[in-house]
């Protein structure tokens, strides 16, 4: 595939038609149509559905658009990397954060990154750990922070810290300690598999010989907390995700003991992709920021992980 044809394809998709795209590309419309026709012939699929109002992407076209945007952005990054000096880096970095960490430290991380790299652009994507892993594999992001990352061959994993998980209930209850097997008595609101927290909790239940009672499966932390506050059940969440709610009396936190459940936060990248200068800088900023928060107590009961990379 010719890079010029890919750029033309992306522009037609963005503009929704050939007429506007040809004006923005400064290409005659017949020439632009020939480029797209050649691309469709090479791929042996139709990329657009033509109609009176313009064009729409086919399923194959939508798949190509996702990859083409990544390829074009990578080419721009490569050109920036070659042109610019270390001090004048103008590249682009896409990173992934889970909702809890994004809410707690996302603004601080982005401010620090922008201060260090004022001419670089940053794309922060928020998603569940399973989504972040898929985006790493697809090339949509270069580095991600994930909860309870399984050891998979494709990933390089650097554990950062672990934090305790608590049983959260509606307001008005008295905080108490719950033994691990006692969790079987609570109607739980948990995310569905393969969510990393659900997988961790299921593993703990199996290891301790009991089954969970899960009447509701909800992947959203925010919605889960609202349902718990309304008395529809209980949930098991990382303390950082609910510490403000507990302090405000919106939720009640019950300690889980004998044994407790700890969730591990890790930095994850692809093994076979060279880490860019911006990504390495982001990792340093992230590690320093999280270490500060754990050390000063903003992440209560968190334990820094001093281990080496996992393969």
Automatic annotation (TrEMBL):
The keyword Zinc does not apply. Transmembrane segments: none annotated. It comes from the Bacteria. GO terms for molecular function: DNA binding; DNA-binding transcription factor activity. Keywords: DNA-binding, Transcription, Transcription regulation. Residues 1-58 form the HTH lysR-type domain. The keyword Transcription applies. It holds the Pfam family LysR_substrate. GO terms for cellular component: cytosol. Belongs to the LysR transcriptional regulatory family. This is LysR family transcriptional regulator, nitrogen assimilation regulatory protein. It comes from Phytopseudomonas argentinensis. The lineage of its organism: Bacteria, Pseudomonadati, Pseudomonadota, Gammaproteobacteria, Pseudomonadales.
């Amino acid at each position: 595939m010719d890079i010029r044809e890919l750029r033309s394809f992306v522009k037609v998709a963005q503009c929704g038609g050939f007429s506007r795209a040809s004006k923005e590309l400064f290409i005659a419309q017949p020439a632009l149509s020939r480029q797209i026709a050649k691309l469709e012939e090479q791929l042996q699929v139709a990329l657009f559905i033509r109609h009176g109002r313009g064009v729409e992407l086919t399923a194959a076209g939508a798949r190509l658009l996702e990859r083409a945007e990544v390829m074009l952005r990578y080419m721009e990054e490569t050109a920036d990397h070659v042109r610019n000096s270390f001090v004048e880096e103008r590249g682009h970095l896409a990173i992934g954060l889970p909702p809890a960490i994004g809410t707690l430290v996302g603004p601080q991380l982005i401010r620090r990154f922008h201060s260090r790299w004022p001419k670089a652009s940053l794309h922060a994507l928020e998603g569940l750990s399973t989504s972040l892993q898929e985006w790493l594999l697809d090339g949509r992001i270069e580095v991600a922070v994930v909860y309870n990352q399984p050891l998979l061959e494709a990933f390089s994993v650097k554990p950062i810290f672990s934090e305790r998980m608590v049983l959260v209930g509606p307001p008005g209850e008295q905080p108490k300690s719950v033994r691990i097997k006692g969790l079987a008595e609570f109607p739980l609101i948990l995310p569905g598999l393969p969510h990393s927290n659900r997988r961790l909790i299921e593993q703990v239940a199996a290891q301790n010989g009991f089954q969970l009672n899960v009447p509701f499966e909800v992947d959203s932390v925010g919605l889960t907390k609202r349902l718990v506050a309304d008395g529809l059940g209980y949930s098991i969440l990382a303390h950082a995700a609910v510490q403000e709610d507990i302090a405000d009396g919106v939720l009640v936190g019950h300690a889980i003991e004998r044994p407790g459940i700890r969730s591990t936060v890790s930095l994850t990248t692809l093994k076979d992709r060279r880490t860019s200068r911006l990504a390495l800088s982001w990792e340093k900023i992230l590690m320093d920021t999280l270490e500060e928060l754990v050390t000063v107590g903003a992440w209560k009961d968190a334990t820094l992980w001093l281990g080496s990379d996992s393969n």
